[in-house]
Amino acid sequence: MKKILERTATTYGGRDGEIKDTLSGYSVKLSKPMEMGGKNSIGTNPEELFSMGYSACLASSLEYLLVTQHIAYESLFVKADTLLMMDEKTGFQFAINVNARVLGVSKAIEKEYIKKAYDFCPYSKAIKGNVEVTFID
């Protein structure tokens, strides 16, 4: 397998810490969610970051497949809703509800390419069998 790129981020602290990207220097403040005893919500959290990463990766995979297969479309979007779940025996785990749309194509083409993108997406491959992913029609 040929490496395309590599990115590195480091988190300092935990839920109330900071994440820094090595290449760009981009920095993000973390804040513990109020549901977990947090005092404020001025920062982000791993669940929001996972939603952003997953939706961006799936949308990018969908775009890549549509473009390389010369499928004309108007626009697309992927909304990922990440749920943090607790299993008393195994601990925390994620579940994701996904709403993906491709505008300007038939429903059949939309459904076909969303499925192809799910199978193609590196995030989807990484979480397969570990995270319950539900697509919302």
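The record above closes out task 2.4. Task 2.5 opens with a second protein, given below.
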Amino acid sequence: MQTNGGRLGGVRPALAGAAVVAALAGGAYGPALAGWAAKGPDWSLIAEEGFALKLHLAAALGTLLIGVLLLAGVKGRGWHKRLGWSWVALMAATAVSSFWLQHLRPGSFSWIHGLSGWTLVVLPTAVYAARRRKVKLHRRMMSGLFVGGSMVAGGFALMPGRLLWRVVVG
């Protein structure tokens, strides 16, 4: 595997972000999981939701899966570029579809929509950086989008009481 100065692309920042999210989430998830027994997800809750949520969830899961592959793999090669374009398209779909989701504050946007707007600004900037061979800037921006957009936002989506919490935990 190709390394960049002893680092594996954006793996370390992503792992650090995951550790921070896990540490912060421990306080929220711990008490809510008391007495929890493992069971399968209740997909019927997702089936009852509208198209925007289904698109958002599918795109978000795609960005998570492809993002892990991109961070762990060799950078700059053909497969990285092809997967990268798929990741960009899925991240854009995730961000855009979020504007139709207003479960936290019905009828208005919440703070999480600010993250979606920021994503739509940073995505093309990060692609432009790659095309201009500004690899460090591209790596920082894409790693930040992965950690903030996939891991942190995903962590908030799994907070107790939210839809994904009910799907996974009950």
